[in-house]
Amino acid sequence: MDPVMKFLPKWFFHQNICMVLEQDMRFLSSQNEILMKEMTPVGKMYINLGSCDTWVLEYRKWKDRVGHGMPYYFGHSSISLPNDLALVEQYRAGLDAGILASVPAKGGNADIYASNPIN
């Protein structure tokens, strides 16, 4: 362990881990938009690294096995798109999506909700 890290309290690491997770939001929102536009499963568009994406890969494979009863899902080798979108984002993938995703609370800026009362 780094000597400097020994002097930092544990709450410091818990407080700052959200910054790392928020950085993934721009990728995830862009990825969902691309998957829906291309109608392609995740395994055909993205390479899962066995060293770090093991749990994500197994989760996607599990969705392939049991996802056929779900309203929609993104599996590793199969996909089922929703009939009605519950949330339509105003911003597209790219710089606008990155700016929107970097705001602390996603949904706080200019989201448009579709008129579907059951979702």
UniProtKB/TrEMBL annotation:
GO terms for molecular function: chlorophyllide a oxygenase activity. InterPro entries: PaO. Residues 4-38 form the Pheophorbide a oxygenase domain. It comes from the Eukaryota. Pfam families: PaO. This is Pheophorbide a oxygenase domain-containing protein. It comes from Asparagus officinalis.
